[in-house]
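Input.
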Amino acid sequence: MDYAYQLEAKQNIVAQALERIGGFTGVTVAPILAASNFLGYRNKATYPLARASARSAAETGQVQAGYYQKGSHQIVNLNQCPVQDVRLNPLLAEVKQDIQKRGWGIYDEKLHRGKLRHLGLRIGRRTGEMLLTLVVKDSNLVGIEEQAQEWLNRYPNLVGVSVNINPDRTNAILGSETHTIAGRAYLQEEFAGLTFQIRPDTFFQVHTEQAEALLQVILEELKLQGSEILVDAYCGIGTLTLPLAQRVRQAIAVDVQPAAVEQAKLNARLNHLENVTFQTGAVETVLPVLSVQPDIILVDPPRKGCDRSVLETLLQIHPEQIVYVSCNPATLARDLKILCADSTYSLTQVQPADFFPQTSHVECAAFLVRSPGFVSKPGAKESESEDAEIG
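Output.
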C-alpha cells in the first residue's frame, strides 16, 4: 500500500475510534507523525523457528526462521525482513545455518518437544550494538558457549549472546529466566540525548526515531515549567520517564515488573538523574499511597488499555493533566470516555504517530486537562449499576 495512503488510513482509524467508541466530537486529531524511514525501522525482531518438511526419511529438514502465515502457525521462511534494521539481516540468514550445523533440536509446539523455540535480534539504532537471544525449552544446549563466542567474533557489533528459558506450553515468546552466555547482558543506546542500557527481555519502543518524535510532542504540549511533579505509571526501563525528569521538579516511576524498575533505576544512575524515585507495584495500588500530589500522570498501558481500577484511581487522584500513550485506538477511546465522563477531564488533543509502518497499528498520545471548577469526592466510586452499564 502506498505510504501516503497508509497514513491517511491510520488517521481515520484514530478519528473513527474516538467518535464511535469514545463518543467524542470536535476533538482535534493532529496530523499523524509520518515516519521518515518506513522500511528497515524495527530495532527488534523475534522469529519462531521450525524445520522444513524432509523430502525423505533420511533427512531432518532445514532450519527455518520467519513469521507465521496469516491465520496459521505455518512459518514463512525468511533470510531478510523488509521492516527490521537492515544490519540484522545477515544474522537472520546465517544463524539458521549455524543452528543446522550444531544439530540442535527445534521445538515442536504440537508435541511440546525439542529445544529451540525462537531467535531474537535487537539493535541500538544509534550505537549499532546488537544482541542475539535464543529462546529454548530448557537450558541444556550442547556447545552453546563455543557457538556464542564464534558469533561474537564473526559480528563486530554483536555485544551479547543470551539464552531465554521458556519451558511452558504457551504462546508467550519469552520465559522468566534469561542467561548471558557470552559478552554483555545489554546493548547501549542513545535516546533523546540520554544513554540507555537495554536487555534482551525488557520493553523498548521498536521505532526509536518515532518514539523520540512523539516525546517531543509531549514536551511541547505539557509546556513544563520545571516545578511539576510527574508520575509515569507504566515506566518500563524509563524510556519516557527519564527525558521528562530533566524538565520537572520530581518524577516518580511506577511499574509492576521488578526487573523493569531495576533497569530504570540503572538508567537513571547512568544519566546522573537524581530527581527520580521508583516504585514497584500495580498502578492502582501504588498511586493512592503516594506521599505527594502529582501535577501530571503519564500512562502507557499495553494494548488492552487500562484496567477499570486504574481509571478510577486516576479520577480519585485527579491530577491537573493526564497524558495517555496508547498503541490501540479502540481501548484508548474506551478509556478516554470514562476519564472524561461528568466533565471531569477535557480531551484537548490526540496526536497519532506511525510507529509501525507497513502494518495496521498506530500509536497515539492523548492529552487531558482537568476541567475548571471540578471538585473531586475523595474515595467516591461509581455505583455497581453504572459500572455494569459501561462494562
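The longest strand covers residues 345-353.
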